[in-house]
Specification:
Order of helices and strands: EHEEHEEHEEEEHEEEEHEEEHHH
Strand content: 25-35%
Number of helices: 8
Structural class: alpha/beta
Oligomer: single chain
Length: 346
Amino acid sequence: MYDVIIIGAGPTGCTAARKLACYGYKVLLIEKFKIPRNKSCSGVLIKKSIDLIKRYFDEEPPEFTACKPKDNRGMVFTDDKGKEYRFEQEGLNIWRSSLDCWLATKAAESGAELRDQTTASSCEEQENCVIVKLKSTFSYFEKARIVILCDGVVGSVKRKLVHTPKNYIFTYQTFNRGSIDLDHHYFYAYLQPHLSEYDAWFNVKDDYLVFGVSVKNISNLEKYYSRFIAYMDKYHNAKIKRQEKAEKWLMPQIMPNCPVEYGKGKVLFAGETAGFLNPMGEGISAGMESGYAAANAIRKIDLDSNLDLDTVYTVYQKTTSGLKAYMERQWNFVAGLTSIFDYMKF
């Protein structure tokens, strides 16, 4: 019997696992993919994310997680009228595979048991535990007093627990060799409706030119990507010599008022699984903060007696109220830059 099983070893799950393991809880951390795992992401740590890593993991991200240029100096937004907004802020340019691997290692060093290449397919609540069905080379079950689910939008466990209809955003980004007339130290977001159905972006990682678009209808990916590349050629002299890699991913589409689902019964939701996601897909800081809050809520109760779930959810919601308010402000700001997000205005 584990005290807590945590499903998903990204920043959310690793933060929760380390927090609980440091306090002596018996923790099992499950990851579907082999670690280091690939994660389609801008790979930019904003200052808030860096500060949270220092706070939750007691040190800065190590050098091996970074890519060139290491220092990210902020974000540049282009609104739906073509006007540019530049926001200067200290940041770090990293590879998510390296960062997530380091975070998982830190969680394991703190005492959490880590199993990668292991898929959680269901959580069945019993009177005194949750039975989690797992599969690696074979199927088996593990038990825990309580579960934290933080496997993003690709996991199937949440869909079996709650049947809330979901809208998804499809992302597509490519890694290219070439040249462009933009400062490599910034992350660029383009919010013109003719370039995407959500947002388009550009940044540089280890001399790769990374171009991406996101859409609501996956059949439109190729059309918007071609438009975006043509736009970047016309306005920023983007010249692609060859494409070396392409990847697709899913994000949840955040709805008005940024609704959050905190969990069901003895299964808490955190990170993107709960609905915590900032604009431009910035989910690292929101994931870490919500994972920490979920772990802190569990610490407020006695797992060996009857679970006081009312206390768990009350504490969890209270400690993430600031995070939710921050997320709402961020989405409201972006909604003011483009008609794409008019539905998000408060």
